[in-house]
Known about the structure:
By secondary structure, the protein is α/β, with parallel strands linked by helices. It has 3 domains: 4-86 and 264-286, Rossmann fold (3-Layer(aba) Sandwich), CATH 3.40.50; 95-172, NadA-like (Rossmann fold, 3-Layer(aba) Sandwich); 176-254, Rossmann fold (3-Layer(aba) Sandwich). The chain contains 14 helices and 12 strands. It has helices spanning 4-18, 30-33, 42-49, 63-72, 95-103, 118-122, 133-139, 151-160, 181-190, 204-207, 216-225, 238-246, 269-281, 291-308; strands at residues 20-25, 38-40, 56-60, 77-80, 109-113, 126-128, 144-148, 165-168, 195-198, 212-213, 230-234, 251-254. The strands form 3 sheets. A 4-stranded parallel beta sheet has the order 2-1-3-4, sandwiched between helices. Strands 6-5-7-8 form a 4-stranded parallel beta sheet, sandwiched between helices. The termini are far apart.
Amino acid sequence: MRTIREIQDRILELKKETGVCVLAHSYQSPDILEIADITGDSYKLSAAAGETDAKKLLLCGVHFMAETAKLLNPEKQVFEANPDAGCPMAEQFPAEVICAAKEKIPGCAVVAYVNTTAEVKAVSDVCVTSSSAVKIVSNMEQKEILFIPDCNLGAYTQKHCPDKHLHFLPGGCPQHSAITADEARAAKAAHPDALLLVHPECRPEITEMADYVGATSGILNYARKSDAKAFIIGTEISIVHHLSLECPEKRFYPLSNRLCCPNMRATSIMDVERVLREIAEGSAAELTLPEDIARDARRCLDEMLRLGG
């Protein structure tokens, strides 16, 4: 049986042979992050993919991230380490449901979280990330806004954009939205000296207790730079592990052990090696999007760059 190090060494050889750039989301396991060329949250991966000279990209994350990378880099080949790794939040509303909801709100604009499918982005007016939602919504001309699919991120955005009227569908991240205020209070009581850092996909009653609210990249950077020595991490539990390895002089505690995304755990180091081998052999399945979907979804992303720049 091969060791993880032997598999990683083979991946490094295949990357050199194929010229593939490996993109790994921050929620991936350490053995994958160690061999990745670019790591970060979903939007950082897509944006950074355009800055590399590589013409072939291998995404280690979930499906909507690979779609976004392709939308922002249409001239490049995009492959998925595990094409079956989806995102329940991204997939919970089909495009026709969004269109029907928009018709009921005269003059509204549709703001789509980046955690959505290309089909949903194609019927939306602008895309946002968890770190840019407040800025982009503030910069929009429209006052009536249908914010989809995460109503918790939407509530956080509404709080910081009081001049706007946000409408929601009952959607959100199954993991973040399941955590209760009682769990947050219990974590704070168990670790009274720790700062609470949470993702805005958490419920409003939890973000109101937090010392910091931000995207995955923001939580990571805050914990790295803070003079504090203890933190409760209110996002995917892998971030606790990564920060503990990176900052051994500090202590990190999960807000809840239930904050574990099975979809992010679906990709293994063996998947990465297999797809790289298939790329080398010319048999790998490339991600493609219908031309009309790609065109309209790219417009939504371009508007994000315009309003958030």
